[in-house]
Write a structure and sequence with these properties.
alpha/beta; seven-stranded parallel beta sheet; binds guanosine-5'-triphosphate; binds magnesium ion; coiled coil; GTPase activity
Length: about 375
């Protein structure tokens, strides 16, 4: 794929290039970061239409009004109207409609591939945030409407891990409160949130949105009183009682240490509590998650070292056996490159990405920052 096919025109070729050179992203930014103050990254995830983007707008406005410094990322390539000004917008780097055309994909495939393409540039994004880190309090990240595209894709994991290995990172799971008043819908939503917790292994908070329509007290009661929740679920006769009892037990365990807050992106209710909860999750990250994360990173590095050692030994053996004859190396499989955990879909995706000629730059919209208005 050529640069023009991806239509990187909006990324203003000269400006980001020059900007990147000026900032020396890959070099100096990384150096500057380690000792300086770290902002909290807030990754906003939720079912389609739960209000992520509207909530982002409200959060950005609140950060500004309370004299804090925020940095804003949009990772939804398909959003048409962004109500807030993003410092980094995936749409400036990848045009998802062109990606759809280029690969003959439908809308979801187009969004997924766009995110994959952007993920290949994510070290630059982290570099840009690191450069600004000392003067920032929060980094707000909006994600695509189709939740599974972010939570179950290789690129979602790459992006989340890239942030979490550098900054305190919190996942905010946005719940559409009026649409979760049925116990079974509520349970499905909570099981999804539970899956995200286990997948990201990061502090997770629930933001019950749209409290201007329905207050979230019923949800708090269900979460704090196991029997009330079980009664509510079992009152739905269409549901298998044994299964619902088991699921209630699983969720009760999940609720134990889960932080939750009611908000309204429209009225602005609950903003103070939202940020208090984010700060508490940020502390959780520093006290509990960081240690585990570093251990996981060390384990991964060890596995990588081991893999390299085995390959090197194999190469030395091949050379010795060839006794001076030219050695023909079998090309490394994609599994070798991507690691043992890569599944067939990952491999296929990576082939698509790396076989294409993608050279878009990540556009940091810093220069216009003062002109942005986060007002309703
Ligand atoms: N009443 C009310 N409506 C809300 C609130 N938050 C969002 N909405 C509405 O919910 C709809 C979806 O909001 P979005 O912010 O686009 O939701 P989203 O999760 O970003 O949607 P996708 O990115 O398309 O999945 C819009 O019509 C919003 O106006 C809220 O707090 N109260
Ligand atoms: Mg949205």
């Amino acid at each position: 794929m050529s640069e023009s096919d991806l239509d990187l025109s909006d990324a203003e070729e000269e400006t980001p290039h020059a900007e990147m050179k000026k900032l020396d992203i890959q070099g100096k930014a990384a150096e500057a970061s380690s000792s300086s103050k770290k902002p909290i990254i807030i990754i906003v995830i939720g079912m389609a239409g739960s209000g992520k983007t509207t909530l982002m707008h409200r959060l950005v406005a609140h950060v500004q009004e309370s004299g804090k410094r925020g940095y804003v990322l949009n990772l939804d390539p398909a959003v048409t109207n962004l109500p807030y000004g993003a410092n980094i917008d995936i749409r400036d780097t990848v045009k998802y409609k062109n990606v759809m055309k280029e690969y003959g994909l439908g809308p979801n495939g187009g969004i997924l591939t766009s995110l994959n393409l952007f993920a290949t540039k994510f070290d630059e994004v982290v570099g840009l945030v690191e450069k600004r880190a000392p003067e920032l309090d929060y980094v707000l990240v909006d994600t695509p409407g189709q939740i599974e595209i972010f939570t179950w894709s290789a690129s979602g994991a790459i992006i989340t891990e890239a942030f979490a290995s550098t900054f305190p990172t919190v996942v905010t799971y946005v719940v559409d409160t009026p649409r979760s008043t049925s116990p079974v819908t509520f349970m499905s939503n909570m099981l999804y949130a539970c899956g995200i917790l286990y997948k990201t292994r990061l502090p997770l908070m629930l933001a019950f949105n749209k409290t201007d329509i329905t207050q979230h007290q019923f949800a708090v009661e269900w979460m704090e009183d196991f029997e009330k929740f079980q009664d509510a679920v079992e009152s739905d006769k269409s549901y298998n009682a044994n299964l619902s009892r088991s699921l209630c037990l699983v969720l009760d365990e999940f609720y134990q240490n889960l932080r939750k807050v009611g908000v309204s992106a429209i009225s602005g209710a609950g903003m103070k509590e939202f940020f208090e909860t984010v700060d508490a999750c940020g502390q959780d990250y520093m006290q509990n998650y960081r240690v585990e994360l570093e251990q996981r990173r060390k384990d991964k590095e060890q596995r990588e070292e081991e893999r390299k050692r085995v390959n090197l030994e194999k190469l030395e053996r091949d050379i010795a056996e060839s006794k001076g004859e030219p050695v023909v190396l079998a090309s490394a499989s994609k599994k070798d490159v991507l690691g043992e955990d890569a599944d067939a879909a990952d491999v296929a995706e990576e082939e698509e990405i790396y076989d294409s000629d993608v050279s878009g730059e990540v556009d940091d919209d810093d220069d216009n920052e003062d002109e942005k208005h986060y007002r309703y």
